[in-house]
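Dear support,

I submitted the protein below through the web form. The confirmation email said the job was done, but the results page showed an empty box. After a refresh the structure appeared. I'm attaching both so you can tell me whether what I see now is the final result or a partial one.
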Amino acid sequence: MSLLPKVLAEDSVDAVHDLRVWSRRLQQVVSTLSANPLPSETRTMVRALQRAREHLGDGATVTC
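What the results page shows now:
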């Protein structure tokens, strides 16, 4: 959560990178801890993380 204000307030490439890495790791944890097939709530969360990364970066997505 400490990265978000840095991304919003500054034009810091490092802060954006760190936030994208954090969101990928969170996505991996959420997917790993969820049942297979993924429940709809988990799919929604994963899609939200992917969309956030798309808006932060160059539009590249990471699939799980």
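Response: this is the final, complete result; the empty box was a page-load delay. Confidence is low (pLDDT under 50) at residues 59-64.
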